[in-house]
UniProtKB/TrEMBL annotation:
Listed PANTHER family: MUTATOR TRANSPOSASE MUDRA PROTEIN, POLYPROTEIN, PUTATIVE-RELATED
Top-level taxon of origin: Eukaryota
Protein name stated in the entry: MULE transposase domain-containing protein
MULE transposase domain residues: 60-155
Organism: Kingdonia uniflora
Pfam families the record matches: MULE
Length: 224
């Protein structure tokens, strides 16, 4: 709140150590350059006792990144879960320079071990960032990776608003009959939009075909 961005980053280690005094289970990691000035490169932190906390939540992790504004710029990566009442539960955070394979791997490799031990598989939800698509199966080889249908609907190559509305009805369909009915409606009004949708396997965005779909809806605004 006060001082420069540079000074705030210099205080990160002290801040994290103070938090750990209150919460011994607090997880954090700070990386700096190897030169004498020890310039900040990236960090990770997670409040609470992750393994104990995660058992109380739905087996779902929503991951995304957002740009940081200000002089220092950078990107904030987040991991979010959903509690039994469908409320948002922040899990973990990371400040990195940009969304690269290395930075996403760094975030997931620290996040993962802190939640391993949960006795069932979990679902990872993300946008269709190609870097995330490549990193998730490497770090979480046994988990289920799905795409947020909200992002898909916003990127459908169409000029018809009705196509996006019907697509969301498709994603929320509870039966194959309803799924086919809404897909046929898109086919009759917007063949180009339909081709874009068919290019994405429904097994990774349509709840009826996703294992463990009872725990999660892929049409989610959590990524925002």
């Amino acid at each position: 709140m006060r001082g420069s961005f540079e000074h705030a980053y210099q205080l990160l280690t002290s801040y994290f150590m103070e938090v750990r005094l209150v919460d011994p289970n607090f997880v954090f990691d700070i990386q700096t350059t190897s030169c004498k000035d020890k310039r900040f490169t990236r960090c990770f932190w997670c409040f609470g006792s992750p393994k104990k906390t995660y058992k109380l939540l739905r087996p779902v992790v929503v991951i995304d990144g957002t740009f940081l504004k200000g002089r220092c710029r950078g990107t904030l990566l987040t991991g979010i879960a959903i509690d039994p009442s469908n409320h948002i539960f922040p899990l973990a955070f990371s400040i990195i320079d940009s969304e690269t394979t290395e930075s996403w791997t760094y975030f997931m490799e620290i996040l993962g071990p802190n939640f391993y031990g949960y006795d069932t598989r979990f679902v990872v939800i993300s946008d269709r960032n190609p870097i995330i698509i490549n990193v998730v199966p490497k770090v979480f080889p046994f988990e289920i990776h799905t795409f947020c249908a909200f992002y898909i609907s916003n990127n459908i190559k169409t000029t018809l608003k009705s196509t996006r509305i019907v697509f969301r009805m498709v994603e929320e369909a509870l039966t194959s009959i309803d799924f086919d009915k809404h897909m046929n409606a898109i086919q009759n009004t917007d063949p180009m939009g339909l081709q874009y949708i068919l290019g994405i396997p429904k097994e990774i965005w349509f709840n009826l075909y996703i294992p463990m779909s009872k725990y999660v809806r892929c049409h989610s605004v959590l990524l925002n």
